[in-house]
């Protein structure tokens, strides 16, 4: 790890004032510190924001402070099941006790080539190439990729929040703005090093989830190589509004398969107006991988994605 300056900010204005080129905010540190140890990230100044008043889960609407810890949010009674389950299936208990909500949404890809400074990675070093294209790509993305990058987005929580059409509140010295999370993340295109719409010196202060009472009928299913502390090969966040034996509304998003958390409007549209049966779920999952660009090592994800969606929907229906 390289030498760096360290400051603990006491107020939000102080934190924003301290932010500048080459600086990084520190919350739980579960991603930042790892990448600093690997020399993937080398900030000259680290700004500890843990003293800032960015906590709390509001009662009037689902607003989650960016410094809330993952484990606390997962246990909160106001949180929709799909969010709680996505958090509970993330990382390890020790990391969930440390990691913040804002940090989770900004975590960097787990692509091994990104984390190895001796290999080619356009996301880490633009123009150097993408070693995953011809290397080990079993865990990589099949949706939203480009010739410059095929890394998956690692956050389970982000998949659940994108399904619920959540937004993040961003604050900087220039003011604040509310951005839909689905628009916040950027597919790699020709600039994979630009992963999101976070501007220099900007900080996530809270997550805002729209009021959606029927999202109490929701779940998150994660398929992975082992049952704990492992990232998704495929995952599905689903919520259904079922009344009178018919699906009135649906929300579906996928993880482990996309360069960004992947909302599936075609699946949602196919579900609407149908009975909540296995046949309906299988028909709805059929277009889930449309537009996929599988690589030799991850072509199995096309089928796995569809099966994961059906499994999530069947699991949800079994709770009814």
Automatic annotation (TrEMBL):
Leader peptide range in chain numbering: none
FAD-binding PCMH-type domain sequence ranges: 1-214
SMART domains named in the record: CO_deh_flav_C (SM01092)
Keywords in alphabetical order: Oxidoreductase
Record-linked InterPro entries: CO_DH_flav_C, CO_DH_flav_C_dom_sf, Diverse_Substr_Oxidored, FAD-bd_PCMH, FAD-bd_PCMH-like_sf, FAD-bd_PCMH_sub1, FAD-bd_PCMH_sub2, Mopterin_DH_FAD-bd
DNA repair is among the record's keywords: no
Protein name as annotated: Xanthine dehydrogenase family protein subunit M
Organism of derivation: Actinoallomurus vinaceus
């Amino acid at each position: 790890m390289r030498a760096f300056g360290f400051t603990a900010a006491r107020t939000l204005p102080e934190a924003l004032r301290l932010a500048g080129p080459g600086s990084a905010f520190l919350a739980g540190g579960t991603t930042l510190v790892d990448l600093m140890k690997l020399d993937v990230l080398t900030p000259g100044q680290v700004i500890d924001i843990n003293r800032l008043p960015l906590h709390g889960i509001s009662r009037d609407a689902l607003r989650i402070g960016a410094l809330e810890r993952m484990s606390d949010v997962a246990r909160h009674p106001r949180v929709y099941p799909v969010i709680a389950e996505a958090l509970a299936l993330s990382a390890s208990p020790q990391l969930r006790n440390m990691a913040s909500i804002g940090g989770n949404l900004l975590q960097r890809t787990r692509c091994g080539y990104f984390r190895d400074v001796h290999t080619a990675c356009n996301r880490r070093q633009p123009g150097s190439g993408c070693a995953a294209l011809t290397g080990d790509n079993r865990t990589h993305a099949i949706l939203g990729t480009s010739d410059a990058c095929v890394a998956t987005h690692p956050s389970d929580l982000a998949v659940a929040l994108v399904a619920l059409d959540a937004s993040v509140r961003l604050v900087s010295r220039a003011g604040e703005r509310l951005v839909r999370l689905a628009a916040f993340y950027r597919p790699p295109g020709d600039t994979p090093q630009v992963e999101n719409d976070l501007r220099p010196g900007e900080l996530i202060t809270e997550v805002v989830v729209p009021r959606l009472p029927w999202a109490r009928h929701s779940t998150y299913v994660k398929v992975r190589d082992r049952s704990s502390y492992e990232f998704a090969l495929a995952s599905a966040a689903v919520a259904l509004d079922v009344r009178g034996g018919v699906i009135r509304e649906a929300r579906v998003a996928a993880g482990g398969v996309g360069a960004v958390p992947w909302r599936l409007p075609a699946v949602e549209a196919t579900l609407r107006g149908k009975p909540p049966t296995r046949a309906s779920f299988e028909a709805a999952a059929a277009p889930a991988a449309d537009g996929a660009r599988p690589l030799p090592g991850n072509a199995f994800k096309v089928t796995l994605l569809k099966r994961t969606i059906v499994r999530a929907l069947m699991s949800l229906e079994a709770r009814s």
